[in-house]
Design brief:
The complex is a heterodimer of chains A (387) and B (137). With 387 residues, chain A is an alpha/beta fold. Chain A is built from 13 helices and eleven strands. Chain B has one domain. Classes of the chains: A alpha/beta (387), B mainly beta (137).
């Protein structure tokens, strides 16, 4: 199982600038714009795209999403599907695209994800166990779930509020090198993070991503087709995925998540040690998510993320193992489900060696993570400059 | 004393399968399913045991004791109906029978700590009794 074979390559990327509000703009318009950008970036002709992977569209298209998007784009794909893994949907698309290509069902797959942000946000239509058994007690969605995970992590290991806040501060520092980021021009110190209002303890406002509109797209094709395209290809060298639960009350562990086996599987397939990865592009809906991922990746022992980050020299492009150089979602903003794909797009930029203002020296490999629901849906990818 | 009974907040979305849980709560009991094959308790209600997939689950009362696995003090509720009682605590309750449930935690003047012993504290909210928990004295 060591190699994904034959390997696929990521050859095109597109990303819209995050916006707080998009009144009058539809998700479909945003998806088409970002897809055009990714297709142009790849050098493929639009009619060479024969696969389409999309994500759920909050409040716009409840069913038949692939057909609705394909028709809008004027495409007739021979493979299409909707990937519904929350924040792991973007990374989850990438290995599914590679698998569909390997199965011979298509050659070039457009993976596209995004959402508008118009008022009023639709209230949850859920009629499932989390709605029946959590909501009536005053729990309030993802913020409460991650607060419960963070409190359990603090209680188990004695980590300090400053250690978690350093992740938010480091992310916003990285965002100062990304003009697209929602926090560009707005850095936050550890003290400012801890002085921001408590939302749901122990999470402060600045430890939580800012919801924005946005969209990201990635084109995946065969390693062979990639040889003659515009950019040096970025290869998919490993992937791992795991779902453990949905509601936080049903989590098998509050301090370690399904990214642990997912990362291990992806690294094994790639034949890479986590300490040798050049760039860590880690899903960061909340500060606790990065802390838990650093520990689940095996970069340090449980509870030691703060010391590890310090020894790592922070998170910037000059750190020993740079993290989330685009600012992460904590600095870039969280464009709904596209948030997870921003980590893929930045990894492609870094491995190409063309990242503006923040290029990591000699970046040959990246670990990308996606995470959904309550630290319960996980996808890890290892990307590399070489097969 | 906080008055929860006058809150206007979303209640449970009860199904035929889950009604024994909510009817039990109305009578100040915490009802769980028990598998007569693998003898494990099941929460939330299922048509089949998710541990062994046998078909026979019986409703039994739980002892109403547990411990606090984690908690959060909510300052900005997701639903505006909860604003009158904010900040308030929710927590994950590890029941003595094995399952974990999320509930509202009544703390009085105590600051909760992970590991605190908890007891069932049935509380009327929006015209329905819900199985809240409180820190055991």
């Amino acid at each position: 199982m060591r190699h994904l074979n034959p390997r696929a390559a990521l050859v095109g990327i597109g990303e819209l600038k995050p916006q707080r509000r998009t009144e009058g703009i539809t998700t479909m318009e945003m998806l088409m714009q970002v897809s055009a950008e990714a297709i142009e970036d790849s050098g493929l002709a639009p009619d060479e795209i024969d696969g389409l992977l999309v994500a759920p569209q909050v409040g716009e298209t409840p069913q038949h999403v692939p057909a609705t998007v394909a028709e809008y784009f004027g495409m007739q794909p021979s493979m299409s599907n909707m990937v519904d893994l929350g924040g792991a949907s973007g990374p989850g698309m990438i290995w599914r695209a590679a698998a569909a290509i390997t199965a011979g069902q298509c050659e070039s797959v457009l993976c596209v994800i995004g959402n508008h942000r118009n008022t009023p946000a639709p209230r949850s239509p859920n009629r499932n166990p989390a709605r029946e058994f959590d909501t009536p007690f005053g729990a309030s969605g993802a913020n409460t779930s991650y607060a419960l995970l963070m409190q359990a992590h603090m209680a188990a290991y004695g980590c300090t509020p400053e250690e978690y806040a350093a992740i938010a501060a480091g992310s916003r520092e990285n965002a100062q090198r990304n003009e697209m980021a929602i926090f560009f021009g707005k850095p936050s110190s550890v003290e400012e993070v801890l002085a921001s209002p408590m939302v749901t303890s122990p999470l402060h406002l600045l430890e939580i991503v800012m919801p924005v509109a946005g969209a990201d797209a990635v084109i995946v094709t065969t390693a062979k087709r990639a040889e003659t395209l515009r950019h040096p290809p970025v290869f998919l060298n490993g992937a791992g995925e795991k779902i453990t639960h949905r509601a936080v009350s049903q989590a098998p562990s509050l301090t370690s998540g399904p990214l642990k086996p997912s990362i291990a599987r992806a690294l094994t397939q790639a034949g890479l040690n986590v300490r040798d990865v050049d760039f860590l592009s880690l899903y960061d809906c909340y500060t606790i998510m990065v802390a838990a991922t650093i520990e689940d990746a095996g970069l340090c022992e449980p509870g030691q993320f703060g010391k590890w980050l310090n020894d790592n020299g922070g998170m910037g492009p000059d750190a020993r193992q740079p993290i989330n150089t685009h600012g992460g979602q904590l600095g870039f903003g969280q464009p709904d489900l596209a948030g997870g794909m921003t980590h893929v797009v930045e990894a492609v930029r870094q491995i190409r060696g063309t990242t503006p203002n923040r290029q990591i020296k000699n970046c040959q490999s990246a670990l990308v993570t996606g995470n959904g629901a309550t630290m319960s849906e996980a996808v890890a990818l290892v990307l590399g400059a070489d097969l | 004393m906080i008055d929860y009974s006058s809150l206007q907040v979303p209640g449970p979305t009860i199904t035929d399968l889950s009604s024994p849980f909510w009817n039990g709560a109305q009578d100040s009991q915490l009802m769980l399913q028990l598998c007569d094959t693998c003898h494990q308790h099941v929460f939330y209600p299922r048509p089949l045991c998710p541990h062994c997939w046998c078909g026979k689950l019986d409703w039994v009362p739980a002892c109403g004791q547990g411990s606090l696995k984690s908690f959060s003090q909510i300052w900005k509720p997701g639903h505006p109906g909860w604003i009158p009682v904010a900040p308030y605590y929710v927590g994950l309750v590890l029941l003595r029978e094995g399952p974990t449930i999320l509930s509202h935690i009544l703390t009085g003047s105590d600051l909760p700590r992970v590991g605190d012993p908890l007891v069932l504290a049935p509380t009327e909210v929006s015209g329905r009794v819900l199985p809240f928990f409180e820190i055991a004295k």
